[in-house]
Design a protein that fits this description.
Length: 489
Amino acid sequence: MIAFRTGRKIPASAELHAVGVCSGGDAQRPDGLDWGVLDGRGFEANPGQVEIVSGQDRPIAVVGLGPADKVTAAVIRRAAASLARSAKRMKRITVSILDAVPDSVDRAEALRALAEGMTLGAYSYGDFKSEHKPNKLENVHVIGPGGRAVTEALEQGQRVAEAVCFVRDLVNEPGGSLTPIRFAELAEEMAEREGLEITVLDLDAIREAELGGLLGVNRGSDQPPRFVEVSYAPDPEAECRGSVALVGKGITFDSGGLSIKTGTGMMTMKCDMSGGAAVLGVMAAIAAVAPPVKVTGYVPMTDNMLGGDATRPGDVLTMANGKTVEVLNTDAEGRLVLADALSLACRAEPDAIVDLATLTGACMVALGPKVAGLMGNNEAWVDQLADAAERTGERVWRLPLPDDYKAQLDSPVADMKNIGGPHGGALTAGLFLSNFVEEGIPWAHLDIAGPAFTDAEDGETTKGGTGFGVRMLLDALVNFEPPSASEDD
Ligand code: BES
Ligand code: ZN
Ligand code: ZN
């Protein structure tokens, strides 16, 4: 964990000092740098480009920010992450990179992005390495004026980024280690730390609550399921604009069940709880961000295995809202556990619901590995989420929920089946979920199958779990306006 401080002078103990530089002919070049060396190394001040050169008292990291008129919080975040990686063998550094940021960028936003980027860039997962060499950065001294606003901005950025790292840890932990029991225990520890209310349903309570989707998926597993409900309420004296439900898919490992995946197909399937982890990540930072809304997170947790009594293709499940589902493909399990979670979320009559799920390979085919699919039944609510994603630099793209595709889910024996036709799988999955949202409740669905997990380091994302969704959801909660009851369909 990096501690951020502010001060006007470079302390003698600083092992490295970082300066920012914009690209382009008329960009200011900080004094005292050997530009001959930098030019020779091909330094062009591109966003995130970092070169370490020798300085008078200590090495200097020169951090590129790209063209001055294109510097945004996202650029600063990326540059700060590169800096944290380049300085990973140092404990104490000083930074004045924000001096090169034009005034058009809000100062608090820039400071938040700096703290976020450095914390996220310094992340690595080493729990199972016998010789883990974690990033050593401990102290970052931000050169410039201090004061409450500055400290608060740095602290918020750091708290949000730590919540993202908490999600990454959960996602990176192997499925055989992060069982539903452990996942729920970690949620309880987090809730206690943050002073949040939490209820954890065990197998008996899940049976009592008739969560037929969760029980159906869990049937092939030796590990009992869990269902976590965790809530936050704003200070009673503070503004409260309503309530939001966050629902996250918590499949701790997806083998596909009897409709088994290929060996390659299940290699990354420990990531199938990324939506649930993101919901817990939001809750982990919510007290720090203090949005003006009540927030409840719902996370159904189980693995999807193929034990001797696993759900068979053709079996019919009765979900928590009483609707029946013919399971024709046991690999379409996420929607089954989400059906229960959405049904429970609706009972509390929230002003809006958003679910996050690594739901379909089809969404990855459509949008690639970095962009999430965003769908919903209420334009105003979907807009709020898309705007939040834009602000936090997480990438989403709207997909439709065509009414006439619903017929693809018709079943001859039950209210619906759990798969649609061969094409448009992300949309039919979304349409399936819409059956479990009570009429009139604004609902949005984020298919994060692509961006939840990555095999390439890029900007502030590191290999493995990315923690996608935490930052945009926190932003959406802070800026929440109750959408008027479902205006579209
Ligand atoms: N967990 C997978 C989706 C997934 C795929 C997430 C790749 C991340 C990366 C999900 O449970 C699944 O297997 N969906 C099936 C649905 C199909 C059987 C209708 C899929 O996408 O193939
Ligand atoms: Zn699956
Ligand atoms: Zn899955």
